[in-house]
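Example (one chain per record):
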Amino acid sequence: MVSLSSSRMFQLLQGHMQPAGHKGRKTRLVTKDGRCNIEFGNIEYSNHFAYLVDFWTTFVEIRWRFVLLLFVTSFTGSWFIFSLLWYWIAKSNGDLTGQNRTDGHVRCIDNVNGLTTAFLYSLETQTTIGYGGRALTGHCAGTVALIIVQSLIGVFINCFMCGVILAKISLPKKRAKTVTFSRTAVICLKKGSLCLLIRVANLRKTLLIGSQIYGKLLRTTTTPEGETIILDQVDIDFMVDAGKDNLFFVCPLTLYHVINKSSPFYELSSDSLPQQDFELVVFLDGTAESTSSLCQVRTSYIPQEIQWGYSFLPIISRTKTGKYRVDFSNFSKSVRVTTPHCADCFKMDSDQRNHNNLENHNKQQKLGIDNPAFQVIDIHETVDMTKM
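Predicted structure:
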């Protein structure tokens, strides 16, 4: 029993203590839904005040649970603070229940007899309800000044909280939720070139104006001086058949990157791709047609999500009524196709085919007999003459 437990424990330790060269689950910098997986450490304490200075951005970016908490706290807190002030005024004037009042006593506030009624009066004043049961008498100058201050502060809180909620609802990243990328990327031949392909779709009928797409390849590199650069960024150009800028984003688009000698994927092959350690981050920038707000959509692909030798299935068809139909069930599906083993192999095969085609073309166009020295020779071949 002891030996069995020891063996089980050893297996568990082996599962957690993997060799350095073993690749576990890849940690992404950018998740599939576009969130950045990064944290900041050892920030100086004084720098935290920068968030308070830029309080508007801080309030807009915090989570909804904190916005709702701020909403409830700001209103109820202001009502309660001013209720204490109204209670203090009523108590100073002798308006509360149980206080000794002289004949001819003039109240500052009608029907404010305790803290509860003072809180209700504060709420009615700031929200401009005005039931009519509690009101100022106008005989105390302090009450006039306090009601002006509370009204102004109440208007400021209303405007601020409405602005925060409206700005948070209309954040451009909410529009980005209706733009989706394919779960995987593929590498196959496209128009005679080896290309990396991805798909992107706009789930709304409203367009993204001035759309641009580009990519960044993130990897760890070592400089000739021996310096290790983590998250070194390399530009990746994507395009469609009509170009790479101002995309007509009315239907799903297949974007491709040509793998040539200037591409960082040129040295890869179908065998070495799964063992690589990089992250391809793809960006789509555009302006929402309905709100005129700029938005950016992001996603990422790791080597295990790039399929070599596959091509996407077609998803656009035409119905009998003449409408174009997009089948999103095949949006991320792919099928195996004939693809070169590597980009360098494809280039060598292409060069060899071009060389053979050139030789065959020259042989077909070659007329007459080779006579580089212009010597007088006898031609024994018969030549057909056409009489006019």
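Caption: The chain has eight helices and 16 strands.
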